[in-house]
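Repro:
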Amino acid sequence: MKHERISVDPNVMGGKACITGTRVPVHILLGHLASGASAAEVLAGYPFLSPDDLQAAIAYAAYLVEHEGIVAA
């Protein structure tokens, strides 16, 4: 998936998907949401991010889940 708000750079955070131009990994934002934080609470903790950045993180995760391989049991 190519998204202007998500970048993967081996020189930034070990190559983890991050919000472009930051060192904030997508998985950190998703973890906050999964733990019950609201979007407003997450954004309050990262005031340099926009609602569109948070939405891009969610869309990125949805894309990965949709395209994950099927593992036979």
